Amino acid sequence: MCLVSMLIGLNSSTVNVALPALTRHFDATQLQASWLILGYMVASTACLLLFGRISDIVDQRRFYLGALALYTICSLACGFAPTVDWLIWLRIVAALGGAILLGNGATLIHAIFPRDSLGSAMGLYAASFPIASLIGPIAAGMILEVTDWRWVFWMNVPIGLVAFTTGWFLLRRKDEREEKTSLDLPGNVIVIAVITLTTVGISLVTEFTWSSPWVWGSLLLALALLPALAFAERRSRHPVIDVETLRTHGIGLLLLAGFFLSAGRFPAIVLMSLYLQGPLGFRPSETALLLLPMPIGSILGSLCVGRLSRRWRSRQISSFGAIVGQLGVFALAGGVFTQNTWVLGVGLVLMGMGTGLFIGSNATSLLEATPESSLGVVNGMRLAVQNTGNVLSLAVALTLMTIGLSPALSDAVLQASIPGDPPAEVIAGFGYALLLLCILGLIGMTLSIVAALKPSPEILQEHDAVALQGAAEPT
């Protein structure tokens, strides 16, 4: 699972670096270039709940290995794409396989490892993605220096083959579940439509602005579908969004905490990249080095989850991670206003460590609280709400960053090409964006702490065991 997570992380980070080379090779338009990234993101996010529910119904091992084979084949085919349109569609198909892999990784780990070692396993799994994100840009840069863009995709093939072979022999078939569930097809179709319209609409903000009919039209249509979704879910025996499940053991609180904390963290790396290259005037290579504390901190935080899980419950670890990450966001805001790179570095480390501590332990908390028949769909919901939060907060943060600026200065900020000393309103724009992240992070941190204060499933089981033991003792 760690190898597969690294495969997906490499794919995302390497394609981002190779995007200029792909645009030049295919002579792609701006819209086509954006859909090389956007198409993958939308398809992956929109189908997470559907594939999560399917994994609760079918043979999870076969489903997972089939998705891994599809992902590997698509990586091979991407290198042979004759046109940019072919490449876009191949990446969309690969994203479907990626959604299955992401949606099932944590649930497979939960099924394989006993509770006393689950925290360590989940921490290692959570660390694999930032490791790949750290290696990916370096690998892509070296590949593009030596050869052409095709090898950015072909490098995934041997990794996929090794992961498939390993999974074929190591993944065990699970016993058939006594509790049968069915697929809520109408609900899933509406959920896919809502997530797709929302993600596309928000993602187009940076290209067309909020006043574009493409943006608000997509968002209004998504909003109009919500009553139909509520109607379909009330009629379904096994709804894709089960309100009763969300109320169980604070699952809804944990999901909301993940949404707000992801929304409060994801835009930071983009904002810091623009800030370092724009107002502070660092070169791209220098900026890449200055941003390294973020993924390094995330790796360290993820690896600490296992050690902390020996003393703390997973909900306590995720709350601690939320607090550490929030301190990092506050430090970033202070570093921007003081223009102090050392303070920014401390903020990036703290935010990375907090994120690493939170992600794995939040996933563990959710899976511990979820009935076995809903593990796949709840994990898919976790990833979907986090991805949606990422897209929404980035669009709003970039809007706040350029609010009150002239069109020319706004373009200069987004292109990190501010001439001379930055005007005060530019620094203020970065401050507004970071204020948004502070508010979102505080909401997520509060929700995480409230969820930690609720009795977790393991505590309730211990209380039940004590009560049964007391009842069995003779008086």
From TrEMBL:
Pfam families: MFS_1. Residues 1-456 form the Major facilitator superfamily (MFS) profile domain. InterPro entries: MFS, MFS_dom, MFS_trans_sf. GO terms for molecular function: transmembrane transporter activity. Gene3D superfamilies: MFS general substrate transporter like domains (1.20.1250.20), Multidrug resistance protein D (1.20.1720.10). It is a multi-pass membrane protein. GO terms for cellular component: plasma membrane. PROSITE patterns: MFS. The chain crosses the membrane at residues 33-51, 63-82, 88-112, 124-145, 151-171, 183-202, 214-232, 253-276, 288-305, 317-336, 342-360, 391-410, 430-453. It is found in: Cell membrane. The keyword Transmembrane helix applies. Keywords: Membrane, Transmembrane, Transmembrane helix, Transport. This is MFS family permease.
